[in-house]
Each structure stands twice: as C-alpha cells, then as structure tokens.
From TrEMBL:
Chain sites annotated for binding [3Fe-4S] cluster: 229, 248, 251
Ligand binding ([4Fe-4S] cluster 2): 186, 189, 214, 220
MF terms (GO), sorted A to Z: 3 iron, 4 sulfur cluster binding; 4 iron, 4 sulfur cluster binding; electron transfer activity; ferredoxin hydrogenase activity; metal ion binding
Protein name, entry field: Hydrogenase small subunit
Compartments where found: Cell membrane
Coiled coil location: none
Domain annotation NADH:ubiquinone oxidoreductase-like 20kDa subunit: ranges: 16-162
Keywords: 3Fe-4S, 4Fe-4S, Cell membrane, Iron, Iron-sulfur, Membrane, Metal-binding, Oxidoreductase, Signal
Domain of life from the UniProt record: Bacteria
Binding site for [4Fe-4S] cluster 1: 16, 19, 114, 148
Record domain Cytochrome-c3 hydrogenase C-terminal: where: 181-262
Residue window of the full protein shown: 51 to 315 of 374
Biological process according to GO: anaerobic respiration
Lineage: Bacteria, Pseudomonadati, Bacteroidota, Flavobacteriia, Flavobacteriales
Cofactor(s) required, per the database record: [4Fe-4S] cluster
Amino acid sequence: ENTPRLPVIWEHYQECTCCSESFIRSNHPIVADIILDRISLDYSLTLMAASGHQAEAAKAETMKKYHGEYILCVEGSIPLGDDGNYCCIAGKSAKETFLEAAEGAKAIIAWGSCASNGCVQAAKPNPTEATPIHKLVKNKPIIRVPGCPPIGEVMAGVIMHVVAFGRLPKLDRLGRPKAFYGKRVHDTCYRRPYYDAGLFAETFDDENSKKGYCLYKLGCKGPMTYNACASMKWNNGVSFPIQSGHGCIGCSEEEFWDKGPFYER
Ligand code: SF4
Ligand code: SF4
Ligand code: F3S
C-alpha cells in the first residue's frame, strides 16, 4: 500500500484503439483498480482527462521527473515512410515522440500486433512503412503482447506483474510473456478432441459445423497461433472466436494479415 504508483506513459500511433478498448474491459484485475491505485497513467490520449498542451506538458513532466523509472506502453506501429508524416502528434512524428519517450523508460510494453508486429498497416505493400517498435529501439527491455487486440486480462496481467514484482515477466525468444503465449490456441481448444478424431466441419453451415466439430478445414490457424484465447477466453471468460463458430485467424502471429486467405487451408 505504501509503494508509489508506477508512472506510465501510453502512446498511440498507427492503430485502431481497440487495444485500449480491450484493456479497459479487464475484469481480473479490474482495470479501475490498476489505473486508480496501482499505476499513475500520466499520459494517454484516450484515457486521460487532459488534452492538447496540457496533456503534452504532463508527459514532459513525467519524462523528466521519472527518467529511467517510468514504463512506456505503445499502442500502434510507427510509420517511417515520408519522413514519418503519416502519424504526427503535437507537431512531432510518431518516430520522434517514440524515441524521445523510450530514452528515459525503464521498460517498454508493445501492446497488440500493431506495436509488436506492424499488424494490418504493415500489410503488403505497407505504404506507410509501418514498423514495430522493437526494430527502432534495441537498448531497452521490450515486452511484446501481440493480438489484435490482446486479451484485456493478459494486458492487465502483464502490467500488474511489473507493478507487483518490479521486473519483467518471463519472456519467450520473441519477447512475449511465457505465461500467456506459451501454448498454441490448438493446445487448449475445446474442439481438439474432434481434431484428434478426424471430425471436421466442411462448411460453416453443414451438419458437422452444427455439431461443433473442428474448424481446421475452414482455415482455423489455432495450430500455428500462440495465445491464451482458448484457456482464458474473452469478455470475462465468456467465449472466444472458435467458440463463436469462426476459426482462429492467427491475429497474434507475425504477418497474419499476409498469410491468408483466412477461409482456406
Ligand atoms: Fe487495433 Fe489490432 Fe492494432 Fe490493437 S493490434 S490497435 S486491436 S489494429
Ligand atoms: Fe485446433 Fe482450430 Fe480445431 Fe480448435 S478448431 S482443435 S484450434 S484446428
Ligand atoms: Fe486472435 Fe485466434 Fe485468439 S484470431 S483472438 S488468436 S483465437
């Protein structure tokens, strides 16, 4: 209770803001507890009351006062094309503000597939040269939390680990937290017994589909996708894509947007 709240700067670059949307729906822990009691969210253009000059001043103050101590969260990829003109905030390019904020950060969290892998903005021919953040900064620890978006409880779990233990969670060779990305969706999918038995839906509306058979022949990428969707599920454990009748499209894997088509093997 006496631990000072961890200062956090949360940047938004080329993204759709659904990572923030996912985060604010975390129920375990409840996100209000994180934002109000555990961290000091000093800058987030989505979740802070201030805007414009006031918001930029708050960020500048945190970067100065907590140099080397704050956590930098990044939502979105960074466009390098056309001198970075595709994404500018407060008169500076995304690259400029990212490098500036990264310099004094203790660690960086790459939220979602945009910051981790470039995501759909980086789809061929990648007109803005959308770039994931680990390609721009090499001298800071970076936690990659891919998914489009990541599960809210995964995001909350990652940030709470840093708050509670003062260090990064255990990461795999790609920089993803092992606790959430250690298994494939396929490994814990409730349709797995059908896969093992060779029982597959052939179309989205056939009898096998109605019986809940495996969606592999409809393009499910669960066997190649590392994520916790099948075990933690979404919307407070209610469901996940496969339970809703659609195969996994591999949204937490690099270049999933170019590795389609989504509806064929
Ligand atoms: Fe949106 Fe997906 Fe990017 Fe998150 S990773 S900001 S959900 S496009
Ligand atoms: Fe694996 Fe997908 Fe079939 Fe589930 S639906 S068992 S993830 S192939
Ligand atoms: Fe994404 Fe597949 Fe989970 S599409 S949300 S990784 S089931």
